[in-house]
Amino acid sequence: MNIKIKSFLELTTEELYAILQLRSEVFVVEQDCVYQDIDFKDQKSLHVFGLKEDKIIAYTRIFKPGDYFEAASIGRVVVAVSERKYGYGHDLMKASIKAIKNYFKVDKITISAQKYLKKFYESHQFIQVGKEYLEDGIPHIRMYRK
């Protein structure tokens, strides 16, 4: 998987369409969750995405401190269902954490994680902070990385 990082304005129309399609495929259809994915936060974020054979198969968006949470943040973490068995989610998280360090010059990261992925995020040194809560009808937890 080849990782690219772009601002909103640097994304091509085709890249943006593929990103939105992947997010919709997983967050709306697979997870059966009706919510407003297009939230006007994409313009503030950097987009980290993984390509395989010129197709976007993995994606996150990252925020500098203060744009989403007080600390830097990673959100919309997604890997195409057909590609999950290859460990690309771990590669994507490593690239996203590295991008936050390189672009924003900070180490502290806060995420709002789907609860069932707690062990996945713990493997990247995130720890749970606070209690479980519902976001768009899905159990979430706040997690923090120093």
Report what the structure shows.
This protein has 146 residues and is of the alpha+beta class. It has a single domain, classed as Aminopeptidase, CATH 3.40.630.30. The chain has 3 helices and 7 strands, in the order βαβββαβαββ. It has helices spanning 13-30, 88-104, 118-122, and strands spanning 2-7, 46-52, 55-63, 72-79, 109-114, 127-135, 138-145. A 7-stranded mixed beta sheet has the order 1-2-3-4-5-7-6, with helices on both faces. The chain starts with a strand and ends with a strand.
Q: Based on the structure given, which CATH architecture is correct? A: 3-Layer(aba) Sandwich
> Which CATH class applies here?
Alpha Beta
Number of strands: 7
Supply the helix-strand structural class: alpha+beta
Total domain units: 1
Give me the number of helical elements: 3
* Large-scale geometry: globular
Write the layout of secondary structure elements.
Layout: E1 2-7, H1 13-30, E2 46-52, E3 55-63, E4 72-79, H2 88-104, E5 109-114, H3 118-122, E6 127-135, E7 138-145
Parallel strand pairs: 4-5
Antiparallel strand pairs: 1-2, 2-3, 3-4, 5-7, 6-7
